[in-house]
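Anyone able to model this chain together with magnesium ion?
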Amino acid sequence: MPSGSVDRDLKVKVLVLGDSGVGKSSFTHLICHNQPTKNAGYTIGCSVEIKLHDFKQGTLEEKTYCVELWDIGATKTHRSSRFVFYNNVSGIILVHDLTNNKSLQNLTKWLNSVLSCDPMNGLSSIKIAPTTGNVTPTPSEDLPPKTSIPLLMVGTKLDNVSESSRANVMTRGKVLCNKFGCDEIHMDTSDSRYVSAGSGNSVKLSRFFDETIEHAKQRRTVTSTTVGSGSPAMIDARQRVFSENRQQHQRISMDPLQRPKRFNFNNSPKVAMD
Ligand SMILES: Nc1nc2c(ncn2[C@@H]2O[C@H](COP(=O)(O)OP(=O)(O)OP(=O)(O)O)[C@@H](O)[C@H]2O)c(=O)[nH]1
Ligand SMILES: [Mg+2]
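re: yes, here you go
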């Protein structure tokens, strides 16, 4: 459990990505609340939950941070608008359904969609045209990109994988996470024992969140000396509102197609977005 004072100044934004129905919201809820959700359903737009994480636990640098988990709804209707959530990213969790190989294959596309969207997200995934100096997205969506952003792969629905096919399924995932250079965890998101303290999954999660916080700190140093990240002012304004209102386990939903006039932050006063 997090201990000591909480640093609310550092913005640590982690995207949770993957095909619709793979279990992103179920996973996000489990790791933020340490218990399974009772309300799984399609996410419209994006839902943000806060995970309190003890950075570098057991060291002199130990400190608790609020990590924002941006759980991106993957229904096709929002395909063209979800990029609005893809800026200022400090970590990416790629979720796939262990019983659905296509959802594993699609992770490269999900990752590329973020990295090609905002040059600040992963400098090694973009190309600088030599003549103009213009930044262009990487041409192939199928090539695993390289990025300095910490990544974690999560395979869900382990409970539906038969003993006989388990080794095959694990090998497929391992190949991709080797390409990405990241860890992978497997679980049944309806069972909190998969993320219990001291478990292999919890150690990998903790390491991942440590890396995202390191990344956010470095990013803050870089951006404080750089003018303009290319992000739309409207998104920056939204994120400022989130930062100012984030609280432990607070949940925020927004639909990019319907530009919200107000957000209801549970019991807190309503905040005008215009
Ligand atoms: N058996 C099993 N079902 C799961 C698991 N994780 C999620 N589910 C179920 O899968 C369905 C989809 O889960 P969600 O968490 O809503 O999926 P999502 O990725 O957020 O989907 P979108 O919001 O549409 O992008 C729900 O019925 C969950 O109960 C798991 O580990 N095992
Ligand atoms: Mg969802």
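Residues 6-228 form a domain with the Rossmann fold fold (CATH 3.40.50.300).
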